[in-house]
Backbone:
């Protein structure tokens, strides 16, 4: 990891440790105040606990023009971004996406969409709905490896992270405590419970917490839709297509709507926020991820609406291209931050024993 980023984060953490004004703001400060000296692993752990809500910056009396020139949100964001690049597997892919995220996401979606469009020759004779374009077996052959790759990649990355921060033995109870915090976005409530001022220095809102929940639960509903459809297909011999009021469709529609609305609002909030308080050079990669996730949900909803029209072939190719790009790029996008955040909260729960 870059020593200059770590050294600047260490300098600021030591000043914050002496001040302690922000002690109750989020999970970062109890963890920070528990240390007297900060190793590289300690700083990486603090960085991944941080939600970049920026409340500490706006409350701080030592920001510029004070000679201490504190900007802890940016210092931790830089370390966090660097840790995702260095701990990614494979590492070169992580570095490439962070530097050229928008271009890579766009090119990947278009490339896969063209491949799916060309693969219409694999259509199943007598298939219904989407399977009349691409057979079920062909979809499984394509998407199963694409689903397994990010799982393996993220597992390797998290193992590297766990060792790097010097976390203790893993305990299921610690994971349960971390999931409880992540499920309701506890750290985005602000230390006072009024939310964070990510958008505006003088206005506290729960908007960022709400859109994070919309995106998280929207994704989980879409995943549940696919999982239920898989169970229905293989265990109950009920192959797709399914009716509008079927469980897979209801889960998918609600999840897709939450994803699209959440991603649009998340981009709006990012555009309104002060980029000087985030990681240097990370804005493009963050927007690329949010845009890819939102477009995946939008293209899925478009398929629901226009799946029986002449544009179905093109829409299916675009949607499958977006889904495949999303899964293959997941370990290198900000989607991975959810796994790192969960790992950091789990490690912190273990240190509290």
Residues:
């Amino acid at each position: 990891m870059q020593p200059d980023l770590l050294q600047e984060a260490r300098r600021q953490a030591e000043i914050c440790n002496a001040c302690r004004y922000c002690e109750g703001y989020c999970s970062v400060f109890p963890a920070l105040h528990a240390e007297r000296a900060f190793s590289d692993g300690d700083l990486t752990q603090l960085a991944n606990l941080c939600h970049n809500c920026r409340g500490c910056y706006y409350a701080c009396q030592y920001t510029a023009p004070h000679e201490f020139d504190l900007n802890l949100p940016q210092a931790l964001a830089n370390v966090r971004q660097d840790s995702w690049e260095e701990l990614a597997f494979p590492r070169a892919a992580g570095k490439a996406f962070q530097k050229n995220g928008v271009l890579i996401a766009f090119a990947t979606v278009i490339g896969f969409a063209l491949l799916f469009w060309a693969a219409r020759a694999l259509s199943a004779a007598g298939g219904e709905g989407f399977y009349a374009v691409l057979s079920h077996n062909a979809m499984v052959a394509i998407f199963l490896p694409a689903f397994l790759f990010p799982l393996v990649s993220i597992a390797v990355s998290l193992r590297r992270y766990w060792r790097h921060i010097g976390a203790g033995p893993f305990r299921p109870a610690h994971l349960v405590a971390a999931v409880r915090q992540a499920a309701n976005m506890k750290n985005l409530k602000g230390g006072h419970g009024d939310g964070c001022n990510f958008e505006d220095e003088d206005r506290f809102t729960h908007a960022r917490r709400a859109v994070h929940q919309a995106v998280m639960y929207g994704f989980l509903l879409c995943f549940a839709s696919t999982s239920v459809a898989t169970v229905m297909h293989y265990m109950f011999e009920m192959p797709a297509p399914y009716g509008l009021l079927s469980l897979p469709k209801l889960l998918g529609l609600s999840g897709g709507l939450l994803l699209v609305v959440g991603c649009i609002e998340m981009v709006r909030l990012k555009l309104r926020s002060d980029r000087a308080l985030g990681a240097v050079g990370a804005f493009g990669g963050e927007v690329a991820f949010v845009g890819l996730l939102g477009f995946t949900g939008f293209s899925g909803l478009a398929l629901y609406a226009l799946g029986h029209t002449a544009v179905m072939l093109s829409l299916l190719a675009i949607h499958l291209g977006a889904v495949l790009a999303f899964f293959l790029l997941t370990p290198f996008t900000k989607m991975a931050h959810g796994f790192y955040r969960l790992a950091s909260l789990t490690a912190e729960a273990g240190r509290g024993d």
In short: Strands lie at 196-200, 203-205. The two ends are 29 Å apart (CA to CA).
